[in-house]
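Researcher: Go.
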Amino acid sequence: MATWSTVLFALLAAVSNALATVLQRRAARTVPLSRRLRLGLFVDLLHRAAWLGGMLGVLAAACFQALALSRGALSIVQPLFVLELPMALLIGRLLLGGRIPRGGRRGVALLVVGLGSALAAAAPTIGTDHAPFERWVPALAVCGGVIVTTAWAGLRRRAGSVRAACFAASAAVAYALTAALLKDATYLWQAGGPARFFASWQTYGFALLGVLALFLFENAMQSGPLTASQPVLTLGDALVSLSLGVTLFDERVRAGWWLVPETLGIALVLWGAVRLSRVALAQDLAGTAQGRTAEPAGDRPRQ
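Model: Structure:
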């Protein structure tokens, strides 16, 4: 079972990620759309103060996530990141003003009830803190194959829902694998100190994968509507993380007839995520329209 510190640090990580998502989404809407995975997207975003603020949120989230993973199971910590969605909606309202619409409140309720039901039914247990290398080989191969395949599928599509969902799926797997590597790396820090931490391949693996995941996430947000990308990213990260927790770290979840309430909980999370994404999309479109009305012609972002 999770300790209070595990839950606390996971929730702090979700809040930091939510703030980062709000700021990064605002920045991503101001850069020109590209048909390819464009490395220059990072260069464009570096000139946006909102994106830089979002990156500070990402760094804070990584620190809180490492603390949570060092104290609890991967299959507990990562699903709690689903709460990033309602937190992002709340933060967006606080920054922009106004009230959360009824659809948003219903989405929050569905998501929270679904997440609580799924976790209560699954009852994940803490396994080991370190995965042997022979387990990492197939995990890296499978996850790497999925990341490449889904990203390639996105590249073959025009801008729109399918392209955004493909990039989001690729980012979700990359985020989940990053979390698994981060958990292993934090164990190495605790066991052998900074020297062992910086000498391990897991440390550089989660750093590189984290950058890749962020890059894919930025392209997913820029490629199509949030209703296509956010639910895929939210559920994909949670489900892949749960699978990695079981296969790499010997974490256990209940099976048998418990799969029924677990599935129902996941369905509620998906339903809530879709509703919240629609609310967030409506807010984005309203904010963009207001920004274009208020900006002089020479200051508008390129289309």
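Model: The first helix runs from residue 4 to 28.
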